[in-house]
Structure formats: structure tokens, C-alpha cells
């Protein structure tokens, strides 16, 4: 096959378009989370806070990440709902905002911060009752292993 | 040989005529896929350690973690060529085929560069102009390489802060903004570890090609050429 100059130009333009599309995709990848994902994380955080406020610990347990729930049950040597009730988690009932990076999120509530991660069933709380420490990870009342 | 001759250049099949670009382009895609597979396995191992849900290959390939690993290498490659293209206008190495002849330091005359009135019938159209088009075209290779460097370095910084902040959240720490990330050790460690390797490769190629030969390669002098011959390609 001996392509014409026109077909070579077309091939070069196509290669350029693919390269530009790739670069654009890279930029979009880094441009933060979509509004829907931020809303999803905030809604999950709010549902967790409301479950605690209404002392509905079973619902709150369902919103915990699997490892966090398992760690809580192992530490307290009792079922999740009972174990969660015994924790000194701040109860705010309201959330102020959420930040999402990739599949991880941080939700700020009155007096505490929640860390969440995305699972097949939706956003789940990885750590709760968290307060910041200078230049260190947050100290959390409930978290995974 | 079945190829035809046109303008002193032998033409063969499309595949043969473009084999260098096609081979390296194909190898690039295969190696990029290999990087994606290895990176995906590594990333999932970290997620498992943190008790988080593993992600699919497709999700990984559209993640900031994969993007920053790709772009940090891209930017340094384009920087390497940008510096090499512009640097070799003014800097020379006696005996190296990567260097121009020692008396040609600088941007050279229009006659030597076949520009303006000295452009031939087969010259690119903008080479024969005398306005901004000549100015741009006569530096287009370096400008495009420099532009790609800036874009991919910017992409590294944007995807880098997203990947860094995801990692921060996994470690129960606050995310940081783009400005703070530009001053962070993570950004500069990713950047400088790539820059140093590219600069080493250029320096090694320039000086080793003074004394060593690769028969048949245009990146080498012909095997029997003296070590002192400069600007001679095989």
C-alpha cells in the first residue's frame, strides 16, 4: 500500500486528535469529583449523622465500611449496634460540606469529621468521630484496623 | 527492491516507510497497557491493605493515580527533547554525532537553513516566508516539544494533587490544594527523579557516541569515522 499525501495527512491529523484527546482525558481525570459524587458522599455522611442522632444504631452500622464494622465488633466483643451505642461519638445531625478525591471522601459535621470510601453499595463510613491533630492523622473514635 | 524512487528518496510500502514511528508507537501502547496492569495490581493491593474496595482496570486507568504516574514520565521526556533541541543550537560536543560541527554554533544563516529567499521548491511553505510564519516554523519543533512539556507537567500537577489527596484521605489526613501541592515534596520528588534520569541519558548519549559506534544507526557515526569528527551521522 502506498498512501497518498492526503491520506498521510489524515493519518497524522487522526494521531494528533488521539493525542489531544488523551491529554484532555488526563486533565479531566485530575479535575476533581463530579457534583453527583460529592452529593453522594455528603448524603451518606448526613444519613450516618441522622442515624446516630435518632439512636438508630443498626442503620448507622449499615453505613460503616466492612473493615470498620468488623474492627468495632472485634474491639468491643459485641454486635455492631450495641458496640456503636457504647462509643462516645459526637452527635451533630447535620453536615457542613464534603470533599471527594477519587473514591475517598471527607465529610465535615458539627464537632467531628467523617472519612468515607466508595463501595459497590454506595459510600460507607471508614472513620467517625474524628478530630484533627497538628501534622498527624485525625484521631477517630471509630475506624478500621 | 520493489520500492520506487522519487526526489532521491526511495519509497516502499507505508509500513516500511513509517516503521520507526509505527514500531515505537505500538510499543508505547503495549508498554502503557503493561504499566496499567502492574499499577492496577499495586493499587488494589494498597486498597486491600486499607480495607477498601478494589477497583476495576477501567476505573484504575481513569484514576488520578494512573494519570500522575503516566504524566510525570511524559513531561520529563518532552522536557528532554525540548532542552536537547534548543541546547544543541548553542552547545556542542567535539566528536559527537549528536552535536553540530563546532563552527556552526548558533541559529545559522538563512542560506544554511534554506529559509526566506534561500528556500527551495520542496521547502515547507512557511520556510519561504519572511514574516511571523517563518519565525514560528523555524522553531516549531522546539516550541511543540516545549508546549507538550508544559502541558504534561501541568497535567502531572493536577492529577498529582488529586492522587495525593486521595492518599491523604485514606490515611485520615486533610487534603491540600493545588498551590500547596506545587510546593510539596511529593510533586518535586516525582518531577526531579524523572528529570535527573533524562539529563543523564542525554549526557551519556552525547559523550558515549564520541567513542562508540552502532553500525547502520543514524544515531552513531559510521564505524570507521575518527573520534574527533563532529556532526557526522551514520
Automatic annotation (TrEMBL), chain B:
Q: What is this protein called?
A: Uncharacterized protein
TM region positions: 140-164, 195-212
Which keywords annotate this record? Membrane, Transmembrane, Transmembrane helix
**Superkingdom of origin:** Bacteria
Mention any Pfam family matching this sequence.
DUF6766
Query: For the region Disordered, what residue ranges are annotated?
Result: 104-125
Amino acid at each position: 500500500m502506498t498512501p497518498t499525501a492526503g491520506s498521510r495527512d489524515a493519518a497524522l491529523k487522526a494521531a494528533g486528535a488521539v493525542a489531544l484527546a488523551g491529554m484532555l482525558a488526563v486533565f479531566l481525570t485530575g479535575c476533581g469529583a463530579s457534583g453527583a459524587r460529592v452529593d453522594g458522599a455528603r448524603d451518606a455522611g448526613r444519613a450516618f449523622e441522622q442515624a446516630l442522632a435518632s439512636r438508630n444504631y443498626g442503620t448507622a452500622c449499615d453505613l460503616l465500611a466492612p473493615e470498620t464494622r468488623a474492627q468495632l465488633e472485634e474491639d468491643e466483643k459485641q454486635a455492631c449496634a450495641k458496640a456503636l451505642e457504647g462509643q462516645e461519638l459526637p452527635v451533630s445531625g447535620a453536615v457542613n460540606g464534603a470533599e471527594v478525591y477519587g473514591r475517598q471522601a471527607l465529610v465535615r459535621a458539627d464537632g467531628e469529621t467523617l472519612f468515607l470510601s466508595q463501595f459497590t453499595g454506595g459510600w460507607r463510613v471508614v472513620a467517625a468521630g474524628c478530630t484533627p491533630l497538628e501534622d498527624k492523622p485525625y484521631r477517630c473514635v471509630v475506624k478500621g484496623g | 527492491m520493489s520500492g520506487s524512487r522519487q526526489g532521491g528518496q526511495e519509497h516502499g510500502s507505508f509500513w516500511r516507510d513509517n516503521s520507526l514511528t509505527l514500531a515505537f508507537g505500538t510499543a508505547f501502547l503495549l508498554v502503557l497497557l503493561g504499566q496499567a496492569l502492574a499499577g492496577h495490581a499495586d493499587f488494589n493491593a494498597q486498597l486491600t491493605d486499607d480495607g477498601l474496595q478494589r477497583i476495576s482496570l477501567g476505573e484504575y486507568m481513569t484514576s488520578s493515580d494512573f494519570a500522575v504516574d503516566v504524566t510525570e514520565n511524559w513531561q520529563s521526556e518532552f522536557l528532554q527533547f525540548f532542552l536537547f533541541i534548543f541546547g544543541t543550537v548553542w552547545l556542542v560536543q567535539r566528536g559527537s554525532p549528536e552535536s553540530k560541527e563546532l563552527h556552526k554554533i548558533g541559529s545559522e544563516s538563512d542560506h544554511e537553513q534554506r529559509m526566506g529567499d534561500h528556500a527551495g521548491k520542496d521547502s515547507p511553505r512557511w520556510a519561504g516566508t519572511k514574516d511571523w510564519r517563518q519565525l514560528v516554523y523555524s522553531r516549531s519543533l522546539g516550541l511543540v516539544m516545549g508546549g507538550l512539556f508544559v502541558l504534561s507537567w501541568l497535567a502531572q500537577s493536577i492529577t498529582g494533587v488529586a492522587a495525593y489527596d486521595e492518599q491523604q484521605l485514606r490515611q485520615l489526613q486533610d487534603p491540600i490544594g493545588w498551590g500547596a501541592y506545587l510546593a510539596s515534596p511529593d510533586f518535586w520528588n516525582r518531577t526531579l527523579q524523572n528529570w535527573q534520569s533524562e539529563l543523564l541519558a542525554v549526557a551519556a548519549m552525547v559523550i558515549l557516541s564520541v567513542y562508540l559506534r552502532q553500525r547502520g544507526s543514524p544515531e552513531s557515526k559510521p564505524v570507521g569515522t575518527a573520534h574527533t569528527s563532529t556532526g557526522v551521522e551514520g
